[in-house]
Structures are given as structure tokens and as C-alpha cells.
Amino acid sequence: MVRATRAKPTAKADQMDAGAEGARIAGDLQATLLRQTQELADEVARLKALALAFERWHQDMISLMEQNRGMRGVGEDLASIVKQLIMLSLNAAIEAARAGESARGFVVVAAEVRSLSLRAQTLSKDLGKNLHKNDLMTTATFQDIQAGGKLMLAAISGLESMVRQLRGGIE
Amino acid sequence: MSEQAKQNIEQAFHRALRASVIRAPEDVCAIAPATGPELGGQPGETLLVITISTFVFRLLTLFQLAANPATRAYYVSEATGQSLDEAFREVANLCCGALNRELSQHFPHLAMSIPYSLSRQCVAFLGELQPHYLSSSAITINDTVQLQATLCMCCSAPVDFVASAPD
Hints:
The complex is a heterodimer.
Chain A lengths: L1 H46 L2 H50 L4 H67 L1
Chain B lengths: L2 H18 L8 E5 L12 E8 L3 E9 L3 H7 L8 H20 L7 E2 L3 E3 L14 E9 L3 E11 L12
Antiparallel strand pairs in B: 1-6, 2-3, 2-4, 2-5, 3-7, 6-7
Helix pairs in contact in B: 1-3
């Protein structure tokens, strides 16, 4: 009985100590969580700057497409010159044939020019095709990156909203 | 990519086309399979590309329309002073927006690029992207306006889903 009455205040004191300790731990935990939530919020805010990188890529893509367009223009000019060369070499071959024996050497030259013109025409066509292929592949890749960027920004916005909710819960 | 996914994407695309390429509700929009992605080499064709991407696939949508008087009269309002390319850009954006919304019911992380105009010859090189699915549709509006729409899908993981058609 005596032992029981003596033990009571000790238990109460222990409970009070435990309560104070619990409150201190909870306070420390809350402070830690708030600090970590703030760090997370800062990191999310930094990630939002990705939008600037996407804008830069967009500008780069426009420049690249402009450059491709310029190259296509050059390719078309080249194709036009090659076409004229073929006509010219054909005319030269006809004229050389008309001139007969005296222009035998010129016949060979005209045939060689024609052969070179035809090779140039093949190269010019290949160049045109490659430029179109390049345009499509560049656009497809860039649009994928652009849409992927939007996906990432949406995910970051989701994270931002979760951080806000987390902070509200902790406070 | 499963056959079911191919069918579902095509059907979703056709629904999006029917909802967005016509200018008035009473207009008649007929969609039929096309033999290839090329409209037929009509001069002044417009080719617009928009990509819908997710982590497991990218879906290129390509729209071609001939810059003839009938098409111009249908899509371009004289009052706005827009070019056919500008006017159709809005239409293509609406169409892909509708497709994007429908697909986002099955793929939660989905985003769409902005439209780009390309030369019509580019469409011949779609095979270079090594697509898992390539399908073209010929669209006729009121028996006068003709356009061609192509889906080109490249997957980086198996894709399958069951779509439920909206009412």
C-alpha cells in the first residue's frame, strides 16, 4: 500500500517527462519536415526553369528549319542549272555530229559533258530527297521533345501542388 | 502494338476528324481509307504535322490539303485575312486536341506539340521513322473539299488499350 502511494507521483512525473519528450520530438520532426518540404519546393521551383530550355530548343528548331529551307532553295537552283547543262550538252552533241569528221574531238567532249551533267542531276535529286527526309526527321524529333517537355512541366506542376498540400498538412 | 490498339487509335482519330474538320454541323464529312500518305501531288499542297507524345509512344498526325479555290473558300474567311495554312493550323490543332483528350483517358501522361508546316514531299519519308503503325485516310467534305490525314505511330514499349466510344 505504502509502496503504491509512493509510486504514483513517480509515474505521473514519468508521464509528464514522456509527454514533454514526445512534444519535443514532434516539434523537431515538424521542423525537419518543414525544412525538407522547403528544400523540395526550392528544387521544384528550380526545375520549372526547364521551360526556358524548351523555349531555347524551340528557337534552335526554327533556325534549323530556316537553314534547311535555305539549303532546299540552293538545291533547287542547282537542279535548274543541271537541267540547263543537260540541254546544252545535248545541243553540243547535235552540233558536233552535224559538223562531221572535223568535230570528232568535240563529239567526245560533248558526250563527256552530258555524262557529267547526268551524274550531277542524280546527285542533285538525291540532295533534294535528303533535305526533305532531314526536314521530316528533324520535325518529328523536335515535336517529340517539345511534347515531352510539356509532360515534364505538367509533372513538375503536380509536384508543386503536392508540396503545397504537404506543407499545409505539416503546419 | 496490338491490332486492337491500332483500331482504337484510328477510330478515335476519325471521331476527332469528324468533330473538327467541318465548318458547319450540317456539312457532310466522308472518311475512307487511302492507299498511301500522299494526296496526289497537287500543286501548293499544305502539309501540317502535330505530334502527340507519351512515355511509351509518339504519334505523328499529318494533314495534307490542296491549296485549290474550293478548299480555300471552305476554310479561309475573307474577313480574317488568314492564309489557308494559318486557317487549317487551327483546324488541325482542334482535331489533335480532341484525339489527345480521348487518348489521355487511357494514357495519363500525354502531351501535344505545336503544329509545323513542311513541304509535301516530306510525307514520302515517313518509313524512315520506322513506324509500328502507319495509316492514311482520305476525307471529303460536301463532295468538294478533299484532304488527307495520316497517323504514324512509333512505340518504345508494347501498346494495347481498350477504348470505349463516347456517346
